[in-house]
Amino acid sequence: MADQNKRKGKKTVSRRVFLEEESTSRTSKKLLVDLFETFMRAKELEGLRPRTLSDHRTTFRYFLSFLKCKYPSIQYVEDTSTDVIRDYIYYMSKEKQLWDDHTQASVRDRTNKKGLSPFTVNIRLRTLKCFFKFLIDEGHILHNPAARIKLLKTEQDTITAFSKKQILDLLNQPNQRTYAGFRDYVLMLLFLDTGIRCNEALGLTKKDFDYEQKVIKVPAYLAKNKNARILPLSKKTAKALSILIKENSVFEDIDIIFLSNYGTKIDPSWVRSRIKKYGEQAGIKDIRVSPHTFRHTFSKFYILNGGDAFTLQRILDHSTMNIVRKYIQMNGEDIKSQHHQYSPVNDLLKD
Question: What is the CATH number of the domain that holds 79?
Fold first, then answer.
C-alpha cells in the first residue's frame, strides 16, 4: 500500500517509444530523381541487361514528364501518392497524344489519336511499380504508393503464326546466289527450326555450333534470362549453317556466324527490316512479318507435330507455362485438325 501511495499522481508510461521509428520519420525528404539513380545503380549491379536498364530510364522519364505537366510541385518521393499514380494511368489511357514525345516533328504530327494501348500502359506501370517496391525493400520510404495499383486488363495475345504456305513463300524470297540472300535464308531457317530470339541468333559464334551433334548452344550472356540452353537442329538447318560458316572464312579472324557483306555484326533492326521486305515481296498481308512471328510459328507447329509443352518451355527459355501458352495461338483449322486426329470417338468407334 505504501508503494502505491508513492506512485500516486506520477506520470504513467504505457506506450513504448521506438527510437528507430522516430529517427526514420524525421529523415529529410528525398528527391525522386536521386532515388531513381540509386535504384538504377542497384539494378546494374544485379546484372540487368543494358536494354532493360535503358527501358527503366525511358519509362521513368515519361513519369517525370507527366509530373512536370500535371504536378509540377512534386519533386520528392514522399509527395507521390496513389492518387497521383492513378491520374498518371488515366492520362496515359485517355489524354496522352500518340507520338507527342517523339524527337521528329513529322512523326509527332502523324496522328491526333489519344490514349496508349493497355499493353503499353502496363509496360510503363510495371517499371514504376518495380521502382517503388525497391524503395520499400531498401527502407527509403515507409509507404508504397503503387502497392494497390493494378495493371489494366488486356486482350489475350493475338499474335498469329505463319501458315505453311506463307513459310514456304518467305523462304523462297532470298536470292541464295548472293551471300546476303543465302545468309538471310539460313537465318530464317534457324528461326523456324529453333524459335531462337533474334538478338541471340545474331550473337552466335562458330564455337556455339556443333555440326556432329546437330545443336546450337545459346550462351548465358546471350540469353534474355541468362539461362544457357541447348537447341537441337534439323539436318537441313545444321547443313545450311555449316555451309554459311565455311563461306564466312573469307573474313579473317571473325567468329560471328551471321555477318554483313563487310564482315561486321548485324543489327537486329536491320534483320527485321529485311524480313519485313521479304514478306512484302511474298504478298503476305494481315500478319506481322518479323523474327518474333517465326518464334510463334515454331511454337505452334512444335505442339501440332506432337511436341510437349514442358520441353517447349525449356527451348523457348520462358519462366512460366503461362507465357508459353501465349505463344501457341491456333486458328480454327488447327483445332479441327487436332480434334480429328485425337478425338476419342474417332479412335474408339472406327467405321
Answer: 1.10.150
| Stated length of the chain | 351
In a domain, 348, yes or no: no
Residues 230 and 321 in one domain: yes
Whether 148 maps to a domain, the answer reads: no
In a domain, 121, yes or no: yes
Quickly list H helices, the chain: 2-7, 19-25, 32-45, 50-70, 82-90, 105-108, 118-137, 164-171, 179-194, 198-202, 235-247, 268-281, 291-304, 309-316, 321-327, 332-342, 344-348
Q: What is the pLDDT along the chain (351 residues), one digit of tens a residue?
A: 555 555 556 655 555 544 444 444 444 688 999 999 999 999 999 988 888 899 999 999 999 999 999 999 999 999 999 999 999 999 999 988 875 665 444 434 455 678 898 888 999 999 999 999 999 999 999 999 999 999 888 765 556 789 999 999 999 999 999 999 999 999 999 999 999 999 999 999 999 999 999 999 999 888 887 888 999 999 999 999 999 999 999 988 889 999 999 999 999 999 999 999 999 999 998 888 999 999 888 888 888 777 777 777 777 777 666 666 665 555 555 555 554 555 454 554 565
Domain residue limits at 80: 24-137
Would residue 246 count as lying in a domain? yes
Same domain? For 196 and 322 the reply is: yes
pTM: 0.64
